[in-house]
Write a structure and sequence with these properties.
The complex is a heterotrimer of chains A (about 140), B (about 90) and C (about 120). By secondary structure, chain A is an alpha/beta fold. Chain A contains 5 helices and 5 strands, in the order E-H-E-H-E-H-H-E-H-E. Chain B has about 90 residues and is of the alpha/beta class. In chain B, strand 1, helix 1 and strand 2 form a beta-alpha-beta unit. By secondary structure, chain C is α/β, with parallel strands linked by helices. Chain C has a 5-stranded parallel sheet. The chains are: A alpha/beta (about 140), B alpha/beta (about 90), C alpha/beta (about 120). The interface between A and B is medium-sized, with 23 and 24 residues.
Chain lengths: ~140, ~90, ~120
C-alpha cells in the first residue's frame, strides 16, 4: 500500500513565456500538486523566468496569457510569487521602489508578484521538502 | 509505486547536449520522466539501461503525436507527475 | 550532502553560467553547503588567461577564483568534458577537482540544480 507523503514545494521557473513551455508546465504541475493536498510554499522566477511577472505582456487574444493565468493562480491560492531582483532588473522588470532607486521612467511588476533577492530561493532550499525547476528548452 | 532513488525530469530535445548528459547520469533504481520536447526521445532512444523506469508526460506526448511510441514508457498525467516527485528521494530537473 | 550547482553552458555567450554562480554565492552567503560542477561546454569557464576587455564583459575567471574564498566548498570539473576541450591542470584555474563521473558527484549531493 502506497503511503501518501504530503510535500511542500518551492517551484523555480527559469524558462520565459513564449520562448519556452516552462510557465505552462509549472502551472499545470502546481494546480495538480494543490489538488492532491500538497503545499506550494513559493514560486521563484529566476533568469529568463522573470518575464512571467511582467504586467506589460499582451499576447494575441487567441493565445494563452501565462502571466495573467499565473498571477490569478497565485492570488487565488495565496502563494507568494517572487522574481529574483538581479535577474529582473537586468531584463527590464522593476517595481515602484527600484524604479525610484534607479530613476527609471516606469515600473511593470504584475501583482501579486514581488521582487526580492536570491535569499528567497535559499530559504526554499532550506524550508521546502521539494525544490523543482522548470527550465527553458533551448 | 516502486521506490525511486532519483527522479530525473528531462525537458530537452534529443539533440540537446543535456539530453545525453541526463541519459548517462541515470542509474539503476532511478526513474526518468520525459516532458515537453524531451518526449521526442521516445522516437529516438531504443534502449534504456536495465532497472530504470521510464515515464513520459501524456499531454506533451499527445501534443506531439508521439504517444503511440510510448511502448517502453508509462504515460503519466500531471497528478501522477506530482506523485512521482513526492515519492522520489531526490528530483533533478535537466 | 548540500547543494550542487551545475554549469554546463560556456562562458560569455550566455548568462546562465553567471546566474548559476550567483546561486552558489548566495547559498554560501547564508552558510549553506554548496559546490559547483562544470560539465559539457561549461568546463570552458575553467580556462586560464581569459582576456575579456574586447567583449565588454568582466572575466569569469576572477569570479571563480573568489568562489572558494566566499565559502563554495568545491569546484568539480567533469574529466571527459575537460579532455574534449583540451583542458589539463596546466591551462586551468587552480583549485579544481577532476571528477571521473558527474553522476557520482550528483549522487553525493542532496540537491542538484541548473540555473536554466
Amino acid at each position: 500500500m502506497a503511503t501518501i507523503s504530503l510535500q511542500n514545494y518551492t517551484l523555480v521557473i527559469t524558462g520565459a513565456p513564449y520562448s519556452s513551455q516552462a510557465p505552462q508546465t509549472a502551472l499545470s504541475f502546481a494546480r495538480a500538486a494543490i489538488a492532491a493536498g500538497h503545499t506550494v510554499d513559493r514560486v521563484f522566477l529566476y533568469g529568463e523566468g522573470v518575464h512571467l511577472a511582467s504586467s506589460l505582456s499582451a499576447p494575441p487574444s487567441d493565445e494563452p496569457h501565462w502571466a495573467d493565468q499565473w498571477s490569478r493562480f497565485l492570488s487565488e491560492n495565496a502563494i507568494s510569487g517572487v522574481a529574483c531582483i538581479a535577474s529582473a532588473l537586468r531584463r527590464g522588470l522593476t517595481n515602484d521602489s527600484e524604479q525610484k532607486r534607479y530613476e527609471l521612467p516606469a515600473n511593470n511588476i504584475r501583482e501579486p508578484f514581488i521582487i526580492a533577492g536570491l535569499g528567497e530561493w535559499v530559504e526554499g532550499t532550506m524550508a521546502s521538502s521539494r525544490v523543482l525547476y522548470f527550465h527553458g528548452g533551448d | 509505486m516502486t521506490e525511486i532513488d532519483t527522479l530525473h525530469i528531462l525537458n530537452k530535445a534529443p539533440e540537446h547536449p543535456r539530453s545525453a548528459e541526463c541519459l548517462r547520469a541515470i542509474e539503476p533504481g532511478d526513474a526518468l520522466l520525459l516532458i515537453e520536447s524531451a518526449v521526442l526521445t521516445l522516437a529516438t532512444c531504443s534502449e534504456l539501461r536495465a532497472g530504470i523506469t521510464l515515464y513520459a508526460l501524456a499531454p506533451d506526448a499527445l501534443a506531439r503525436g508521439i504517444a503511440q511510441n510510448a511502448v517502453k514508457a508509462s504515460l503519466v498525467d500531471f497528478p501522477a507527475m506530482v506523485e512521482l516527485t513526492a515519492q522520489a528521494q531526490k528530483v533533478i530537473s535537466w | 550532502m548540500g547543494t550542487l550547482i551545475v554549469i554546463d553552458q560556456p562562458p560569455y555567450g550566455t548568462w546562465a553560467g553567471r546566474e548559476a554562480l550567483d546561486m552558489a554565492f548566495s547559498l554560501a552567503a547564508f552558510d549553506q553547503p554548496v559546490a559547483l560542477l562544470f560539465t559539457g561546454a561549461g568546463v570552458n569557464w575553467l580556462r586560464k588567461s581569459q582576456e575579456t576587455t574586447g567583449i565588454g564583459q568582466k572575466s569569469v575567471e576572477k569570479n571563480l577564483s573568489a568562489a572558494l574564498i566566499f565559502g563554495v566548498e568545491a569546484l568539480y570539473a567533469d574529466a571527459t568534458a575537460c579532455a574534449r576541450y583540451g583542458l589539463v591542470p596546466d591551462n586551468m584555474v587552480t583549485g579544481v577537482a577532476m571528477a571521473e563521473s558527474s553522476a557520482e558527484v550528483m549522487r553525493q549531493h542532496s540537491h542538484t540544480a541548473f540555473a536554466g
